[in-house]
Design goal:
Elements lengths: L1 H15 L1 H18 L3 E9 L12 E9 L7 E2 L12 E7 L8 H11 E12 L7 H11 L8 H10 L2 E9 L8 H6 L2 H9 L6 E8 L26 H11 L2
Parallel strand pairs: 1-2, 1-4, 2-3, 4-5
Antiparallel strand pairs: 5-7, 6-7
Helix pairs in contact: 1-2, 1-4
Length: 252
């Protein structure tokens, strides 16, 4: 699976750049805000940023563990399409670039849905195909070589979540500065962050979707009462008193 490995490596290289490091700082702040209102026992952090401990520093989740392909960075080695986790067992899933790096992104989302408890949360991080600058140039060559691995818009992913019964609580975009190596020029482009937030938030390099698994309401069982059978043919059902009165008055 060389293409998949290339995708993972290219994602890692982007996060090692100046623009990627800045995006990580923003991700830490944003996820910390999300997690301040999320409670539970278990958090699963998987994907390109699966081993990032900073995501859970201010978490109210009791225990967190990571899943990925690098045994030096992750607690569990497994594929996101086949999670070795029991159904309805995880309170929060943080998934970074799992859709871009998978041949079957629908199956990845189905697995996230399966392991999450009812009312569980998912924070999904992805590269934005409409980004004006940043990661767009980095991932474009890989998208051309293999159509199975490609970036998908936040609206596209929201539709997938909706089909699974998730409610999208919030969508944010970050990373508006260009991917350049010159630190001085990069610092001078700080104005682009405020410009992007106000004028073109959808043009950010990354999108972050916060979604919540909804509980399907079960209709309570009610006994269906059948209507009484109507007598036909002019016959009338009479009780004993009515029968006696009828014999006494109409027998002759």
């Amino acid at each position: 699976m060389k293409i998949k490995s290339d995708m993972m490596n290219d994602c890692g290289r982007w996060y090692a750049s100046l623009a990627g490091q800045q995006a990580l700082d923003h991700l830490d702040q944003l996820i910390s805000e999300y997690l301040s209102e999320i409670f539970g026992y278990y958090c699963l952090n998987m994907g390109v940023l699966g081993g990032r401990e900073a995501f859970l520093e201010n978490s109210r989740i009791s225990a967190g563990f990571s899943l990925g392909s690098d045994k030096n960075k992750n607690d569990i080695l497994a594929k996101p399409e086949q999670l070795p986790i029991a159904t309805d067992d995880i309170d929060l899933v943080i998934a970074s670039h799992v859709l871009e790096c998978s041949e079957n992104p629908h199956q990845v989302l189905r697995e996230i849905d399966r392991v999450l408890v009812p009312e569980g949360h998912c924070i999904l991080i992805g590269f934005n195909p409409y980004a004006l600058l940043g990661a767009r140039r980095l991932l474009k060559p890989l998208n051309k070589r293999n159509k199975q691995y490609k970036t998908r818009s936040a609206s596209h992913v929201r539709d997938w979540f909706s089909l699974l019964g998730f409610e999208t609580l919030e969508v944010n975009y970050i990373g508006f500065r260009p991917t350049i190596k010159n630190e001085k020029i990069f610092k001078k482009s700080a104005w682009m962050d405020e410009w992007g937030k106000k004028m073109g938030p959808i043009l950010g390099s990354l999108y972050i979707i916060h979604a919540k698994k909804q509980v399907v309401a079960m209709r309570p069982y009610k006994k269906v009462w059948k209507a009484p059978v109507l007598l036909t043919g002019g016959k009338v059902a009479l009780n004993r008193t009515a029968q006696r009165i009828r014999r006494a008055n109409f027998s002759n």
